Amino acid sequence: xxxxxxxxxxxxxxxxxxxxxxxxxxxxxxxxxxxxxxxxxxxxxxxxxxxxxxxxxxxxxxxxxxxxxxxxxxxxxxxxxxxxxxxxxxxxxx
Length: 94
What we know:
Layout: H1 7-13, H2 15-36, H3 40-60, H4 64-93
């Protein structure tokens, strides 16, 4: 298979090294910002960015377990976060 920007490219090019650092910084920075927000939807949005940094860390490892973990994180995050956003909307409407 040919990847333009995929796991094979990350593994052989060394791009995974800097990608891991960017993902780690994003994870920490957005978590700190999320804690400081009073608006529930803004807090959830920054939390989403932080959770997607976990996915990037998993894929950036360029291992089969990292990819599986990242994929599982996407599914778990999608199912959980959509419910949280709907609850936040219900709170604001009430």
